[in-house]
Amino acid sequence: MDATDVHASDLAHVPEEPQGCVVCIGVFDGVHRGHQSLIALGRTVADRRGVPLVAITFDPHPMAVVGQQVAPPALASLAMRRELLRRAGADEVDVLDFDEEMSQLSPEEFIEQLLVDRLHVRAVVVGDDFRFGHRAAGSVDTLREAGERVGFEVVPAPLVGEGEHRWSSTRIRTLLAEGDVAAAAVALGRLYCVEGVVVHGDHRGRELGYPTANLGIAEHLAIPADGVYSGWLWRSGERFPAAISVGTNPTFEGAERRVEAYVLDRVDLDLYGEQVRLEFVDWVRGMEAFPSVESLVVQMAADVDRVRQQLG
User: Fold this and answer.
1) How far apart are CA 304 and CA 210, in angstroms?
2) How confident is the model at residue 5 (pLDDT cuts 50, 70, 90)?
3) Fold classification of 3-159 (topology level)
4) What is the CATH code for 192-311?
5) Is the pTM of the predicted complex or chain greater than 0.85?
6) pLDDT tens sequence across 32-81
7) Please, where in the chain does CATH 2.40.30.30 lie?
């Protein structure tokens, strides 16, 4: 393979100019505070050199390709990942199409074809535990050796965190699975959110006095544990306080796991077919089956009061 064979969806956006660029590399799932710290370091290096900062990420997740593993649920859609990386300080976000062919590239081929020939890299900023290339044979030391030979700087970013926990996508997925969206938000540096188009459900919420927006969400995204949460619903830049329900509606013997939101004190919103974003603020209660519809309605009123308190 020569340099033109490197699979990438966005590399054409990167000007192949002699001054090159500084590159940060990673999956960047969720663009959590550890990733933000790495991008900030890259921003500093790029500004010092007077060149653009390019964030290189992968799609699909390498685990979905290598070793026939199942990729972990994503903490952000690809579109949101781009948005968050730019917000963190990247000038360009370039997504490598990670397929079987790319997974076979040796570390040396990856460096030569992508970093040197394609991007004319001046510096590479990666986490100090970064691995790359076929069978993850490449490391920071591999990059350093190539940099000394070819002429680019390697800047390892230390792992960062809070207390005994470092900020990691794995840790955040665990917190979401436990329903601890507040702790997940601390690690993310933002509220955890999901996006989707509002679709028709059973219309039962409207009959009970609490009409809900039922989201059609991509299957690969991480969803918090079943339960009721306080949060916000965003539509076209406008934010609404919301009670968010995750689960199967066990009172009505539901089987399909759903994410739906009731916008507080609003029964007039027509959201069907619209793209909305739900942000999770805090846990309210677990999902449970109630002995009667009347007892469920009483609990829903208490949930709304609790959500109102949590949102201030």
Assistant:
1) 10
2) very low
3) Rossmann fold (3.40.50)
4) 2.40.30.30
5) yes
6) 999 999 999 999 999 999 999 999 998 887 787 776 677 889 999 999 99
7) 192-311
